[in-house]
Structure prediction request, 257 residues.
Amino acid sequence: MMIVYYSICFFILGSILGSFYNVVGYRLPKGESLLFPSSHCTNCNHKLMPWELVPIFSFIFLGGKCSKCKQKISLFYPLFETVSGLLFMISFLIFGFSYELIICLTFISLILIITISDYNYMIICDEVLIFFSILLCIEIFFIYGYKVLLYRLLSALIAGVVMFLIKKLGDFLFKKESMGGGDIKLLAILGLTLGWPLALISIFFASVIGLPLALIICLRNKEHILPFGPFLGASAILILLSKIDINQVLDFFTIIK
Ligand SMILES: [Zn+2]
Prediction:
């Protein structure tokens, strides 16, 4: 029974943090303060009361409308909070109370913030990337020791360089900016978190997930550029949660041979 209780706790924690990450992802690229002004209706500036700030539930109680001006609140907020809660809960169910869980939740937090800013502004903030890289380095050092940290730092370099080369190739093929510099830095963090082989595999996964969506969006709107960051993040989270061990993958290929 305790596992149900803890799962619910992690879901609540994830949805509260998700609601905060949404604010971070919206405000940081615009250079706004994260704490002031406090959360308000984007239409009438009505300052939200504590009971209007409960993730998911407030949206349901308010019937999806601002309590003052009755302007509709975007369904995106409760959906994002639900996804954040679910990701935290699933991470707990997979990793339990372990050191891996700390790294996994740190990484998921980074991806959630990046998804908001990349989707809304096509920007991946350096402040966010730097903050989380340092945090991940500290965690890896204390959990796995300096040798693993060195290997992961080298992985970050390899993954970043590979992504840089892919971007150069893309720029050449499409005769325009194929992806932002943020994606290169993001891949370096994927290398740091997953090690370089899995980081490179996540580029492949991201392309597989992203391509159908890219085609749909491009057919509808020729000007629209698809942000690649959220797809990279989603595929990296899938790899992280599936606990794929790169050695097993390599073993598998040697068996085929
Ligand atoms: Zn309002």
The mean pLDDT is 88. The two ends are 46 Å apart (CA to CA).
